[in-house]
Amino acid sequence: MGVVNDQVEHESPDVQGGDANASSADQPSADQPSSDQPSSDQQTAVQSRAQIADARRVVVKIGSSSLTQADGHLSLDALGALVGVLAERRRAGVEVVLVTSGAVAAALLPLGLTSRPRDVATQQAAASVGQGQLIARYTEAFAYHGIRVGQILLTAEDTIRRSRYRNAQRALERLLALGVVPIINENDAVTTDELRFGDNDRLAALVSHLVRADAMVLLTDVDGLYDAPPSRPGARRIAEVRSAADLAGIEVTGRGSAVGTGGMLTKLDSVRMATSSGIPVVLTSAPNVRQALAGEDTGTWFSPFGKRGSARAMWLAHAARAHGVLTLDDGAVRAVEGGKASLLAAGVTAVAGEFGAGEVVELHDGAGRVVARGVVSFGSSELPALLGRTTAELREKFGEGYDRTVVHRDDLVVVRRRPSKV
């Protein structure tokens, strides 16, 4: 069992091949989430649909398909209608954060494009041009209601690295305190594929966590979650989802629209991210946003079931792309699932995939089931020679530095936990 337990502070001998002492590398780095993030016992006061009307802070996400015309170009009417509703809530004292797609759609006309570009370079160029167009339209629309807006473009690193997390959080809090509506989009012009949200649904969940939102509203081109494709005769809207069991047998598609990147599967991923962190979600269509924010029976209500942890843990569990797999022995599996141990080389039995230090990997048990996900401290070319060796053996054979943890507990999130004893 190669793990480091965070409750052991003194020097102690190896335990089943693992070192029970936390080394100097076992301390949180400057890039770890800070201790002033929401603690795990914090949870939103909004626990029912009707309570959304009294929410203090709400994140609203709108997708490209809800902001575009039939020809794929930006619809100023749709944008104006959304802004009108959000302005009403802002004047009523609600702090509103808007996560918006639509930058690429806004660039189609200025760039003379007939459809969403397929190659990465043109997508990035379109995002760069379109973001200016999009924020200009939002600025004008909110100004009509006497409300100022501020633009924030985020990457995944901005929500998982300590310094960037705190900077983003501080900027958002100050904007809200000044009565400004923050308008957020992913910084598609510079984001790499390895560290991107992939769509603004996941971004909205992370932003909801970042600003400690009381609720999140996802606006799409369908008026809720259905038990079958909405176009199928007899499909019924699901008014409320209280647990994952309520989704059993539900048929959804992962395909997004011609101008967007996210389908219903990504929206359900976003819902899981938010609700597992204690944030309730309403999924509905853009024309129903007023009813959703008023707590009326529209769309699908997803009840929160978890408590707030760190944004880094949320990203690792739901949004990060794994580059490889580490297989653990039974002792390491038990310790990692306990949630308070770092992984040492002594607990790793096999390595698969190609990855570098600092990339995300999955931790599997001997049967190939995912136990956890985490950021690895060694590359795939280094790890094989270290497997099964205790910290003392690594230090003796390879020197200082090789005795560090393979995955630090601050960079690890458990996906599957042991059942609690009854």
Q: What value does the average pLDDT take?
A: 81
Protein structure class: alpha/beta
- By CATH, the superfamily of the largest domain comes out as Acetylglutamate kinase-like
What is the CA-atom radius of gyration, in angstroms? 23 Å
- Counting DSSP H or I runs of 4 or more residues, the number of helices is 11
State the shape. Answer: globular
Secondary structure elements and their pairing?
Layout: E1 3-5, E2 14-15, E3 18-19, E4 57-62, H1 76-91, E5 95-100, H2 103-111, H3 120-143, E6 149-154, H4 157-160, H5 162-177, E7 181-186, H6 200-210, E8 215-220, E9 240-241, H7 264-275, E10 281-285, H8 289-293, E11 300-302, H9 311-318, E12 324-328, H10 330-337, E13 341-343, E14 348-353, E15 360-364, E16 370-376, H11 391-398, E17 407-414
Parallel strand pairs: 4-5, 4-8, 5-7, 6-7, 8-10, 9-11, 12-15
Antiparallel strand pairs: 1-13, 2-3, 10-11, 12-14, 15-16, 16-17
Helix pairs in contact: 1-3, 2-3, 6-7, 6-9
Structure overview:
- The radius of gyration is 23 Å and the shape is globular.
- A hairpin with a 2-residue loop joins strand 2 and strand 3 (18-19).
- Helices cover 29% and strands 19% of the residues.
- The longest helix has 24 residues, at 120-143.
- By secondary structure, it is α/β, with parallel strands linked by helices.
- It has helices at 76-91, 103-111, 120-143, 157-160, 162-177, 200-210, 264-275, 289-293, 311-318, 330-337, 391-398, and strands spanning 3-5, 14-15, 18-19, 57-62, 95-100, 149-154, 181-186, 215-220, 240-241, 281-285, 300-302, 324-328, 341-343, 348-353, 360-364, 370-376, 407-414.
- The strands form 4 sheets. An 8-stranded mixed sheet has the order 6-7-5-4-8-10-11-9, sandwiched between helices. The chain has a 5-stranded mixed sheet with strand order 14-12-15-16-17.
- The chain has 2 domains: 3-31 and 315-414, Archaeosine Trna-guanine Transglycosylase, Chain: A, domain 4; 49-307, Acetylglutamate kinase-like (Carbamate kinase, 3-Layer(aba) Sandwich).
- Helix 1 (76-91) packs across helix 3, helix 2 (103-111) crosses helix 3 and helix 6 (200-210) runs parallel beside helix 7 (264-275).
- The model is unreliable at 4-42, 255-262 and 418-422 (pLDDT under 50).
- It is built from 11 helices and 17 strands.
